[in-house]
Amino acid sequence: MMRQDSVIEVDGVTRRFGSLTAVDGVSLELGEGEFFALLGPSGCGKTTLLRLIAGFEIPDAGRILLDGNDITRLRPNRRPVNLMFQSYALFPHMTVRANIAYGLEMEKRPKDEIRSRVADILAMTELTALADRKPDKLSGGQRQRVALARALVKRPRVLLLDEPLGALDKKLREQMQLELKKLQHELGITFVVVTHDQDEALVMADRIALMKDGVIAQAGSPRELYENPASRFVAGFIGVTNFFEGRAADGGVIVDGHGLLQGTGATGIAAGERVALAVRPERIALSREAGLAGHNAVAGDIADLAYHGQDVNLLVRVDGVDRPVMVRLTAAEEEQGNFQPGQRVWCNWRPEHGRVLKD
Ligand code: ATP
């Protein structure tokens, strides 16, 4: 069933390249005015899915609908969908203004209309002062804004962006993430952004589809994916997670040497199955003398501390657990505890903050 406000519906879409299934029966709905991120590791099929929506790939099975109309076989330039190309695709011999006007000139729009639409987009993307420069006289971030303006001036129903900030350094990237989100919000156009960077997806997107091997591992709001990951893959890809390996039991996971660690379960897990209890670093409290009442508590030794401004990350070697457990404290908590490498501590977390997950 199509949601009332959905702009694009991807319905059971598959795309194969020879024996490889790049996109495998994917279904998705993109809402009106939504900022949607396709996230996942390299090769999971996110670019192929974007190209299917753009019309540069034709599915082997399934359909793509736009406003309820089947556009599966419509050519790219007949779709009210625009793909933003990387900034190196700008015309080097043309000014910013001419680069942005180009698409409208190709459509043979009246001169007055072109002039006013270009002026609007220049203002919106804060490029007015740079309108007469050529791309080689712009910074990387400015060039990226021109590429964006060039795609937006055509007023697409949906704008598709493939790693739009990929070429920028970290600081500029973080700044542009916020700018992009603000611009999308002002325009109210549906954006679909491909990224492999989970932080970027969490910062920008209203909704995320996390892909793995051509299928959607989970789709939901950033908070849903972070707080309620459906699988170990999702918990590991979104944010940092500690995994305690063991066997599923009633109410939690039995971990060698620690007995039952309580947690809330994902559905469909049978007793005795190999699973992990996932716990986020910020959910763990440290205590020095003994475990806290009402908590899961495991003992270990502090291996390392790393300062990150407001937070301190501590690595704790928990008895019998291979990988050190990451604990994130605020600087104030850490100062109060006066934690040092080599100290014996207890890691404590409430049962509801442990999640029983399998792959
Ligand atoms: P990345 O982040 O590395 O760009 P991605 O998630 O965007 O990865 P896709 O580019 O969609 O992944 O590719 C998915 C799979 O399909 C990969 O294994 C890729 O090698 C393969 N593939 C993509 N396009 C083609 C093609 N035209 N011909 C053959 N194989 C392809």
TrEMBL record:
Annotated NCBIfam families: potA (TIGR01187)
Family: Belongs to the ABC transporter superfamily. Spermidine/putrescine importer (TC 3.A.1.11.1) family.
Domain named ABC transporter: residues: 8-238
Enzyme nomenclature, EC number: 7.6.2.11
Catalytic activity from the UniProt record: ATP + H2O + polyamine-[polyamine-binding protein]Side 1 = ADP + phosphate + polyamineSide 2 + [polyamine-binding protein]Side 1
UniProt GO MF annotations: ABC-type polyamine transporter activity; ATP binding; ATP hydrolysis activity
A GO BP annotation: putrescine transport
Top enzyme class: translocase
A Pfam cross-reference name: TOBE_2
PROSITE patterns given in the database record: ABC_TRANSPORTER_1, ABC_TRANSPORTER_2
Keyword ATP-binding part of the UniProt annotation: yes
Summary of the function given for this chain in its UniProt record: Part of the ABC transporter complex PotABCD involved in spermidine/putrescine import. Responsible for energy coupling to the transport system.
GO cellular component terms given for this protein: ATP-binding cassette (ABC) transporter complex
Name this polypeptide is given: Spermidine/putrescine import ATP-binding protein PotA
Protein keywords: ATP-binding, Cell membrane, Membrane, Nucleotide-binding, Translocase, Transport
Record-linked InterPro entries: AAA+_ATPase, ABC_SmlMolc_Importer, ABC_transporter-like_ATP-bd, ABC_transporter-like_CS, Mo/tungstate-bd_C_term_dom, P-loop_NTPase, PotA-like, Transp-assoc_OB_typ2
Organism: Microbaculum marinum
Top-level taxon of origin: Bacteria
Known partners and oligomeric status: The complex is composed of two ATP-binding proteins (PotA), two transmembrane proteins (PotB and PotC) and a solute-binding protein (PotD).
